C-alpha cells in the first residue's frame, strides 16, 4: 500500500513539474509572438484552457495543452491569443484579429 502511495505521489509531482515547464514554454512563446508583431503581452502569463491526451506527429501519446493569453495593440482593448503544445513541443500560436492604429 505504501508503495502505491509513493508511486502516486511521484507521478503527481512529475506531472506538476511537466505542467510548470510547459507553461513556461507557452508564456515565452506568447511573449515572442507579441514582440514579433509589436503587440503588448498583457498580464505576463498564460492560463491553461484545456489538457487532454493526444498523439504527436510520431504517434506517441502525450499531454496536449491549450493556453490562453491576452494582448493589446493600442492599449485600449484586450484581445486573446492561444498557444498549443504537446508535451513540451510548441504546435502553434494564434492571435485574435486586432486593430492596429
Ordered list of secondary-structure elements with their pairings:
Layout: H1 2-36, E1 40-55, E2 61-72, E3 79-86, E4 89-95
Antiparallel strand pairs: 1-2, 2-3, 3-4
State the total count of DSSP E strands.
4
Specify the number of helices: 1
Helical content band: 25-40%
The major β-sheet equals:
4 strands, antiparallel
Give the radius of gyration: 17 Å
Order of helices and strands: HEEEE
Question: Shape from CA axes?
Answer: elongated
Question: In terms of structural class, how would the helical and strand content be classed?
Answer: alpha+beta
In short:
With 101 residues, this protein is an alpha+beta fold. It has one domain.
Q: Could you characterize the architecture of this molecule?
A:
This protein has one domain (2-95). Strands 1-2-3-4 form a 4-stranded antiparallel sheet, with helices on one face. The chain has one helix at residues 2-36; strands at 40-55, 61-72, 79-86, 89-95. The chain is an alpha+beta fold. It is elongated, with a radius of gyration of 17 Å.
What are the salient characteristics of this protein?
101 residues, alpha+beta, four-stranded antiparallel beta sheet
